[in-house]
Amino acid sequence: MNLKRIKSLDFLPLVLAYILIIVFFSLASPYFFRMSNFLNIALYAANIGVLACTMTLVIISGNIDLSVGAVISLSGVVMGLLLQKGLSIWLAMLACLAVGALTGLYNGFLIAKLKINAFITTLAGMQMFRGLAYILTSGKAITLSDPVIKAIGRGYSLGIPNAVWIMLVMVVLFSLLLKYSAFGRRVLVIGGNPHVAFLSGINVKKNIIGIYVLNGLVGGLGALIFCSQIGSAMPQNGVGMEFTVISAVILGGASLSGGKGSIVGAMFGALLLGTLDNGMVMMDIQTYWQDVIVGLVLIFAVLLDVVKNRKTVFAR
Asked: Are 294 and 270 in contact (CB under 8 A)?
């Protein structure tokens, strides 16, 4: 990769900021710059990074999904209940993924076919899916002790957490999908201008539904990782996760207006958020101030995107 191409990367400022943050926390805490701590950061970021892969596609297409956290909740609860009924772990995990895909189909159908605003649709979905999780469990947690479940989010392979391996595989897979597949090119065209995409012969509705089904499916995968990490399935799982994932995608260079985004950038966004959280805990910064700082970082990232888009418009 030549220097000119490196400079053109939308997430290059994020990478530079990430390096500066690592240097700062390394100087601020003697316990930060350790391999064990970086593995903890990667483990924290893994679930966000996995979910950010398909959330990037959603945002590139000019849409949004606020129901991701609730999908994690509902999918995990269904898996837990099926395990309680004696179903095999593999069928229960498959059901978890299927529930996620069905929530995506629901969102995608309302948005693409019924033309309901994506923000409203997924906001309503967030309430409905979590409400169903509470109804199914009566608000109670379901303990998950199966070794297969434990291995997904808490196991290690070659000294690296399995969840991190899953994130890396997903990042490579969806990076290739976005860059080299016809589906990826259609997502970019739809996000750039849906009307032009329609005139070009792209079935916009079908592709939007496909994007949301894929996002829901990966939400089910996120449920597997999340439930494994905490050892239980409960309706409170994933609260606020959607905002963290969207933040990672935006930090990674995606534009809320659609048509632009990077899977690798979203992964770096997830790592940056994980590093910030980890470093601030080590510095004993109050939780409320941690939320304020993360919010300011997100605002700064959005402002950079606005400035960059304005420069692009004036350059034309």
From this structure: no
